[in-house]
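Consider the following input, taken from an annotated entry for Biotin synthase (Candidatus Berkiella cookevillensis).
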Amino acid sequence: MTHTPTWSLQQVFDLYQLPLMDLLFKAQTIHRQHFNPNEIQASTLVNIQQGGCPEDCKWCAQSVHHNTKIEVYPLMKTDEVLHKAKQAKAMGASRVCLGAAWRKPTASQLGKVKEMIATIKSLDLEACVTLGQLSTEQAHELKDAGLDYYNHNLESSPEYFAEMTTTRNYEDRLRTIHNVQTAGLKTCCGGIVGMGESIEDQMTLLMNLANLSPQPKSVPINNLTSVVGTPLEHQNQKPIGDIAFIRLIAVARIMMPQSYIRLSCGRERLSDAAQALAFFAGGNSFFLGEKLLTVNNRDQVADKALLKSLGMQFDNQTAYIPTQVCVQHAE
Ligand code: SAM
Ligand code: SF4
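Applying the prediction step yields:
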């Protein structure tokens, strides 16, 4: 396994503070060494069980600790997952990500999720799940069931994480990520910005992500969407700003050159031009479909129109056929 360079906080700050044109040029140069700059990897999220989570994450609509009026529903049937996975494939997604609002899955829940994984794989799609904390044995079980990715985000710096949630700690996160890696699963690990954290917290998050060994294959960068009823319901009134967000994408790209850097929650608030700049910065993945887990996503028709206007397409080209422009020839 190639040794991952150990990043220092100062090195991350030095990157972040580069003149933007130099930072973007550096990021795009590195991006092109590993990826086709005109391709986007698309994933579709399916919330297989919603609400009632015992954790108290201040950002989250699904926590029982907050009064968010979210619809709570039990574990979805496998047939419904199959239906949603077929829809995801038709849209152009190459991966389906199943989320459940659990602290950790029980044996019977894991059994049901394994059936869903098999269903997704039967469509020749990649499967990712995010079920909370996982033991090594459970991680091996999911790997044996054909799972490709396990998502477990570091969210922020350890210090700010402790301010944002008290029912679990950073060590719990790192332990699950270690268990997932030990089982040979690819990790999807990122975080959230715009929660009122400092730039140092953001730099620490990126440093800790890049210093994971191996580095996460998929790195979701969420931009907080304030949910009414959560302690952060007014936080969106102080957004971090598009340029600051794009700087984070570029720094993540430089530090994790072979990872998919995913524009995640909050992308719907970016203009087409800001998204194009984020793609140039090395953001090469996003969620496709009208919903993320609980908050709205960008409309998929708008997404396809944007990619077409940029001369970009999904990385599983077979699924994405640019809509032909029918030119009516005057008779
Ligand atoms: N329950 C699992 C866990 O906590 O690990 C799965 C979480 S699922 C991947 C949701 C992720 O989306 C969270 O880890 C968080 O990074 C992000 N997220 C959730 N609510 C959000 C919000 N309101 N705004 C931005 N990101 C959010
Ligand atoms: Fe639960 Fe995950 Fe939401 Fe935290 S982010 S409250 S663990 S569903």
